[in-house]
Amino acid sequence: MTTNSSSLKESIQTILSSQYLGVLATNTGTAPYTSLIGFMASKDLKQIYFATFTNTRKYNNITKHSQVSLLIDSRTNRGGEDFKNSSALTILGNAETVPQVQQAEILSLYLDKFCHLQDFTSDPQCALVRINVEKYILVQRFQEVLELTMQ
After folding, report:
1. pLDDT surpassing 60 at residue 39
2. C-alpha 65: how far from its chain's center?
3. Structural domains in the chain?
4. pLDDT at 4
5. H helices of 19-133, where?
6. Is the entire prediction scored with pTM above 0.85?
């Protein structure tokens, strides 16, 4: 089901603001590769940001194949409750390094959420990466699927 309703945007915003970690899938050229990342979403939901070292597999994959997928969920690991109450949000988009001229402003917002990553993000080998979101796919109540295509 494809929709652009404000309630869907609110549901997506709730998940993005309540979670800190997601699983990023990149492409090695021959297979998917997943990594756990700390992310921050823009207020308009058009971008997702994360920090990573430039000598990592994920960063190398992104520089060669920009299409990525990010999975964020609300599970609690409490058995059957998760099947009824959890939501899973898949984000599809293209990743790129944030241009130097935009980094200070975005990094400040990122560190508001991840203040404990100050040393990590100040390392010269650390890059700030932006996912330009193409689509959100939200699965709720185990099988209700809603999609939001970003313009």
Report:
1. yes
2. 17
3. 6-149 (2.30.110.10)
4. 47
5. 57-64, 80-85, 100-113, 118-122
6. yes
